[in-house]
Amino acid sequence: MASQICANQYDISKAVLNVSRAADVKEEFELQMKSKTNWETYLVPGPMTIALLGELIMISASNDFSIKKNAPKDGYKYIRYLESFRACLMQVANEGYDAFSMAHRNMDEIRLHSMNIPDYIKQIVQILVQGDDQLVQLLLPDHLINMKDISEECTALSAAVENKFSSVIHTVQELLEACVNANKVYQENLEDIQTSIETTKMKEKAAKETKETIEKQMNKMEKFVDEAHSQLNTALNSTPSGLDMVVIDLIHGIWDGFTTLGSSIANICTGKRSAKSKCNTVRREDASENKQVCHIDEIPIYLKSNILLQYAFRLTDYLDKDKKLDMQKVYDARRDIVTSDWIKAGFDEVHKNMAGEHDCAPKHLALEICRMGIHVCNELSALAKSNKGNSNDNTKITEDIQELLNKAETFNSLNKKTTSAPAFIPQSPNMVNMPPRTGGFQSERLCQFKIEQTKQQMRFAQESYDKTFEAMKKANEELNEIIVSMQKLKVKEVDFDKTVKMLIKGMNALGNVKEQWEKMVRFFQMISSHIKICLNKSVKQLGNTSKTILKSVTYTSNSFVRDLIYQQAFQACNIANHVHMISETYTEVSDLYIMDQVSTLGRLIALNPNNSEFEKERAKLAKGCTKAQARILEIVKKKKEEFENKTDMRVKKLETELQPLIRGITPECKKQIEKNVSAGMRPLTTDELSQFC
User: Fold this and answer.
1) Which terminus of the chain is more solvent-facing, meaning fewer CB atoms within 10 Å of its CB: N or C?
2) What are the distances in angstroms from CA 498 to CA 130, 493, 565, 605, 627?
3) Mean pLDDT throughout 588-602?
4) Taking a C-beta distance cutoff of 8 angstroms, is the pair 102, 166 a contact?
């Protein structure tokens, strides 16, 4: 029987390795991010925005007037021609042309730069697996510096385009403000303009705050590296000898926390912070929709969920197959020790570290889990010392252990939903050859739990993608209506009312493009942060004495540091891969369907609107933009189908390769796991929003 359990556990461990290969985890990360940064969706309005700029040139031929009246005392910062509304429209068209041209050039450079990062990662892994610390210290910094240089160059390229689009938006915004100040706006348009300007300013403020909080959190990444070492030392110093594989499980929990850190910051970098944390604040950008925003100070709290889950699972090791307490495992009579004391020490440390964290509902839940864990450990210790291990009082403790595990699973699922961290993480080079645990039921439950988490994550990713797609179509239809109505008019038929409406729509469309470039800047800042920590801290730590910490599995402290470097480099590569896919998509779409229209816009700018050739070029631009938009929409639909197929394939791979090996989970247990995952991942109700947010 024991040999069958070991054989099955070996098969499960092998299957877990197979479904958590680096390529699989990268793709799952890509799927999680795809629903928030699908650039092809945001490129759909591109051609019509260019057509809109072309219409502004046409409008500039109509009756001109001054917008200088009632200008601010210090003047305007962006618009340059207050004496001529016509000239201001031409300024907007020119700046829009420059922005789209720069976007294409810079994104192509980003594509070329980012395609080199995976090669550096391969070389880094080859160095790390050699096990030679001097070789790592000698060769690794050069590769890391190359990656750092690439990320900083790409940051500058992204920031330049972001600033360019921001400048166009500011010009349009000031133009609308000038129209209001000059009393050129009818009352019915005044509210629309003021709302649009206010929304733009709020988005700018939110973007600035997001940038500051992300920088703040990335600066804390070094602190997390120190905490990782602290958690490892606590486990080593308090774990009884002979439990080396338990320590390996805890190390997996530390890696899981590091993946959570990377995913959570990347999730916030997308600017679409839709996590349903129970203490999230609510920002109302639209009267019809509540958008929940994850507070960045909650991230360190969620990082604790992985290690708390491991401690909760370790307590279930004291239960037999009938879920009854096995006191022989709790109390080691030969050495006269209570073997659960090290778990209590772990709960104590997490509880202590939580003291200075942000006060919110996730913190309260984490503290409750710590208190429950400490209470259970105290009860186990009291039973062992009073020799009452065989009494009927054990039922309460077993129930408490099960309840603790349920809460830990729910908290961990809340973490996965909030941070978009994958359930399965890649094995580090020095860990991949470690022998599998023989935990039987506990290991099977953990696998079943992660399968259920992945299913839910893939479902939520699809739902998020669908919502983005529908919102894009609606916004695009509104923009099209404005453009089509303008294209039907002659120069003399254009009135100021229609011009204002078009400027508002144009500003919103350009704002969406700018927001995507903001995300690119943040992504590259993340890559730089990971690399800086590797260079400034982790590589230097390899100079420490190579002290063996797990003799039976020959895992040293320097092995831990090398694996830590791998995890940091892998996170950087994850982001780089995502950025490269974005840049490839953008460059391909822009090259095929946007730059031709930009070139036509350039010719239109050079022509006099009263020239007979102007109407021909205007018609050519309109026709080309309509055709390009239709082609881009076809690409979007194709990409959406590919996305849905990939999410389905990810779930199917788990169900076919791993699920059949999990034979010890009862229907009741499986149902409880599904309940725990759903409790952590489900959207909050209106009452809960009012209660917690």
Assistant:
1) N
2) 68, 10, 58, 21, 24
3) 84
4) no
